[in-house]
Amino acid sequence: MTEVEIEEFLKALNEDNITVKKVKFPALEAFTSSGIKVSLKHLNDVKVTITAELGSVVLKGQEILDFREGKLIILDKVVGEQVDLYINKQRFAKGEVLVIGEVFAVRISSVYPTPDKANGETV
Description:
Layout: H1 3-12, E1 50-53, H2 61-65, E2 83-87, E3 90-100, E4 103-111
Antiparallel strand pairs: 1-2, 2-3, 3-4
């Protein structure tokens, strides 16, 4: 709405004591945090979810409905190929899958640079 439209609207309400004024905000000043030092100790107990993605596949709905016990799902990665690692659904590294005793493990082989330091996706 323009100022004129607002004034006409208010006049239509038959309230003569209402006035409309423009709001003036103070100018914003640049903020720098160079002098602020914060300990990250408060993050020590924060829990995050780490996920290793072995591979992926695109399927049609009917193919999913046909799933039965014993059905094989062929993924897009080759045996021995590195897997992507995610922290809270954000990719952060690549790793290799290992078997230690009877459990799987992932050895981190490379960590992606943080987004603000990366010019592209390099590993």
